Every structure is written in structure tokens, then in C-alpha cells.
Amino acid sequence: MSKNATITDVAKLAGVSITTVSRILNNKPDVAPATRQRVEAAIEQLGFTPHVVAQNLAAGKSRSIAVLYPSDSLGFTELEFEFFVGVSQAATKASFLFNLIVTPMTEQTLLNLFRSNQVDGVILMEIHLNDRRVDALREHGYPFVLIGRCQDNTGLSTIDLDFETAMVKACEHLVSLGHRRIGFTNLIGVQQGYGPAIRSLWGYQRACEQFSFEPCYRELKPTIDDLYHATGVMLDEQPDMTAMITLHAGPLVGAIRAVQSRGLVVPQDFSIMGILSDQTAQILSPPLTAISFPAQMMGSRAAQMLIQKLHEADYEDKQVLLKPRLVVRESTAPARDSRS
Amino acid sequence: MSKNATITDVAKLAGVSITTVSRILNNKPDVAPATRQRVEAAIEQLGFTPHVVAQNLAAGKSRSIAVLYPSDSLGFTELEFEFFVGVSQAATKASFLFNLIVTPMTEQTLLNLFRSNQVDGVILMEIHLNDRRVDALREHGYPFVLIGRCQDNTGLSTIDLDFETAMVKACEHLVSLGHRRIGFTNLIGVQQGYGPAIRSLWGYQRACEQFSFEPCYRELKPTIDDLYHATGVMLDEQPDMTAMITLHAGPLVGAIRAVQSRGLVVPQDFSIMGILSDQTAQILSPPLTAISFPAQMMGSRAAQMLIQKLHEADYEDKQVLLKPRLVVRESTAPARDSRS
DNA sequence: TTGTAGGCGTTATCAA
DNA sequence: TTGATAACGCCTACAA
Fold first, then answer.
1. Is the pLDDT of residue B267 over 80?
2. Does the nearest atom of strand C lie within 7 Å of A29's Cβ?
3. Nucleotide nearest to B17 (CA to C1')
């Protein structure tokens, strides 16, 4: 591996100063065409490429953004993958590097990421209503964007799905099919203030009032088994429940199996809905009627917002809230009079 | 955002030279305990963290590795996600940053990644038997590791699943259940020399000979629809086919549906196997008997190999070939005498 | 239009 | 055990 050419080599070969080379590299005006030609020839001949680390040091930036995705255990993760791809695409387009960090970080470690100039900005996921990471970053004035949102989002840049409305919309769909009792299995984390869980619950509660049915509710870990058992219990205890909604995407098959284990057919005897990516919805049997989770787009948007914020000193923070989109597939059908 | 403290500030506050501070930061010997204490106090007081970009410039490294995952379109991507998580975990553990690059790159752009010192090494995916990216990197002596492998792997560091043996093993399982005609739907890319596709085909051909049955074979794009239709055609044309294997993981549900559309039940009437992650296998209905694809582990191993290679000048390249592991679930059963 | 010189924050060499 | 000083490769006033 021969040593790479530097800007000095180029300058020497072209017979100019490194300043001139630098000018050309950065598309600055005021360079004689003849000079430009000679320099470009030299660059070509040496196969020179600017040393990005050195550029960054001089510029005081790193031209890279990071996504923090704290995953202790690897669960069902279709959504996260789409987030990452979206972020990566947007970052590359803007000539930014995208660092994916899955190891959980303390606030200290997070701040150090900035202090050490490893990243110019970060995207946070798995946001809680009161998120200490957000407080820490805000306090220090470091640039960041949330996929999700907090309680107080003034001055923050966020992008999130409107889970509350999503739940109402899902219930509405089921009610319109004649269902009068709709169950809901939520993600755990309501206690801890986990955004999607809390807001979904709010939506569910609103729907219960609006459509006047009694709640039938559980919070569960995201495993097939947990969902299977919980669904079974709900079915047994609530004979008038003819439909359910779940926030568990990957494990959703557990709910389907539980229904089938009671001798019921989805959707003729029992309707199921979810909030998940189109990918996952299609892979299930039957394909799931769902509120669509546009994760890739959200990742892209988040990265774009962050990068724009890095470029523009007077960038105005926005809170983007995505309207839920209902996609009817084959897991919902008109309610039967009775389940037996 | 107040300006970060630098090593100079620390030196000043502690009343020593920056050299001394540097020594302490890098755990060099020969520092008086008293001095060390003073310096550490100063570091603490200023909240100082070394400027990683500057460190990298001085050291001539970037302490980051990249994964190139060329995805034009976003398909079913459970495996890739697990790769990434594995890589990220291993990278973080070694204090390396992990750059995920999903935009397709030319060989030029790839080489520039090194020339510009943005990364110290890369992990390549989607490897072909004759891969120009590999040639380019090898020629320039840049460090890299393959998830997958080429035809000639001497001097390369690779980790791959043994697809050939995997196919034989899958056939063996089905044959042991009494199946006498086993279909196979492969990924496209055999023509282009895409490793997993070619090697699977080899394995299938070997199994056909070994267990003496006629091949029944298709190459398909990875969509539910394509798999659905191809499976249907195969079922109609080959009445003695009682089982099939597919390399399409996410779209696999298409095969299941095709079987069901012919009034057949999986696995009583027809057995299906795949080569896919345990995640995906469990989410399907019925849960799929499969050769397990340990993607996360492969990602971690790949990153570890790469980082080790970066550290040790005399690192010896290895080619890791993973033994396929059969996991019997509920999509395979003894063959019936006839399918009608 | 071009070049000189200083700086970005660190590490490494060599004296003291 | 410590401290000047010169790299690392590039950018940017400011001067010519």
C-alpha cells in the first residue's frame, strides 16, 4: 500500500502553491483556467484524493452523523432496519458518513461523542416523554433530531407517527365493520413514559369513549409467546371481544395463532390489526390490515432535517407528525353476531 | 455551545506541558504520580475529552470501519439487519465507529473511501465469485473482509455459510421423511456468479445425484408474487413433487400460499424448507423448518476479523466457513404416497 | 490571480 | 520524569 499523495505533492507537480490547489479542490473563484488545468492534471496523475480527516480537523467538523439505537437484545426489528436504510441514503446523498451505534450509551458517553468531535449530530430513537438524553443534548446545545418525540418539544426537531390518531383510526375501521368490543395489546413502557406506548394508549382510551366500548387491554413484552398467551387469555375472558389491535409487529403471529388455537378463523371469526411496516404486514398469514409505519421515509427525513440543521445557522426546528394511513388487507372482516 | 477544552487548556491549568498530558491520556509510563493527579484533576475540571479527529490525523487512522451494502431497492432484509447489528456491536466494543453505506459504489468511490482516509477497513457483502470490488481492494492492499466469498480466496479474510452443504443437508432431511422429488427455487444471480445462488445450486445438483431424483428448479426475483406464481407452476407441472426448498426468506410466504391455493396443507400434503434467519422462520405460518442463517454472529465475526487485521501487521487471513445447522419446525412432515 | 504563514488538536522524537 | 518542537494534511486570512 503505497503512501497516498497529499496536497503538497499535487502542488509540487503542478508547480503551484498548496493554496492554489486547495482553492481548486473547494471550487473557489479566482483561478486562472490554465492553472486549474495543470492542477487537475496533476491530481489525476497522482490519483490524489483529499484527506478527509485532515479536512475535518481544519474545518472543525466531522461530516458524520450517528444514529443511537439502544438494543440490548435483538428482537423483531423490521422497523429499525428501515430507519437505518433511510438515514444512510440521506446521509450519503449529502456526503455525510452515517455511524450506527447499537450499544446503549450513558448520557456521558453520548456527550463525549460530541466533545470528541466524532459526530456533528445525532438521531435519537426510542424516545420517552421525559428523555434524559434529550435534556443532556439540549442543555449543551448539540444538534440532534428525534425519531419520536417528548412531552415538551419546543425547540426540538422531531419526526413521529401520530400513534394516538392511529389507534382511533384503527378502532374506527373495526367499528365500521360492526365490532363492538376491541382488545388492545400494547408495548411495555407506559410506566416509563415510552412515547409510542403511551400515545397509543391515549388513542385507545379516546376510542373507547368515542365508540363507547369497554377497554380490554394488556401490556406485553414483544415475543411471540407472550402475545400468544395474552391473546388466549383475553379471548377466554372476554367472549364479546371480536377484534383486537396490537402494537407488536414481529410477534404478531402469536396473536394469530392464539385465535386459531381457539378454533377461530381470522378474519371471519375474529379481526386483527396492527401498526407495522408494509413489509411485515404482507408476510403474515393472513396479510394484515394495518396502520402503515413508513419507517424508511422517517429515517430519511430525520437525516435530512439534521443535516440541514448543521448547515444553516438559523435553521428553524420543526415537529413533523405523520398522519396515520390505513391499509386494508385480509385480517379484518365484518363482525359476527357472536363468536361461538 | 461553549468551545470545548483542548489539551492545551488542560496543560495550562495543570501547569505542565501538553506532552505530559498526552502521555497520561495514552497511558504511557514514566509519569510522576503527583503530576498525574494534577492533570487528571484538570481534565475532570474542564470536562475535557480528546479531539478524536485530531488524534486520528496524528495517528494516520480513522478508527472506523464501513459496511458496504448495495441496496437499490428495499426488499426483505431481515438478514442484513442482523449483519449490521453484529458488526456494530463488535465495532463499538473495539472503540471503532461503524459506517453503514447502502448507496451502491463504483470501484473508484470505494477506493476513495480509503484514499481519503475516511475508513480504515471495509466489510463487503453480496459477494460474487469474481468480484471486481475485491480485485480493486486487493490490488491496492486495503484491508477488508468479506461476508461471503469469491472463487479464489487465497489471502482473503472471509466468513460465509456453506450453502452447498446446506442444500444437501436440507434435501437429506426431506429424503429421510420419504420425499422422492424435491423442488428448489433459487435467488437470481447464478449467471452473474452471485455466491449463495451458485453454491446452493451446486448443492442441489449434488443432492439430486446422491439421492437420485430429477431436479425441479427455478430462479426468481425475491418477491412474494414471483414465488407464489413459480411455486404454483411447479406444483401443477410436477405432480410427484412433494417438497420444496427455497432461498427466498422474506417472500417465502408466497410459496406457502401457492401450496394452500391448490388445496394442500403444509406440511401434511407438502413440505417446505428455507435457508433463513430464525426470526423469519418463526414468524411464518407454519413455523419453518430451515437451515439457520446466523447473520448477527457472522457480522460480529467479520468485524472482529477486520479490526484484528487492522491491529496486527502479521495477521493471518482465514476463510471461515460455517457448518449449516438444521432446525426442524413445523413445515416438514413425512411424504404422502401421492399428492391427490 | 497567486503565495506566505499560521492554525486546527494531537502524537512522536529527541533533548534536557 | 518532563518539555520543546516538528510533524499529520488541509484551510484561510492576509499579503503580494
1. yes
2. yes
3. D3
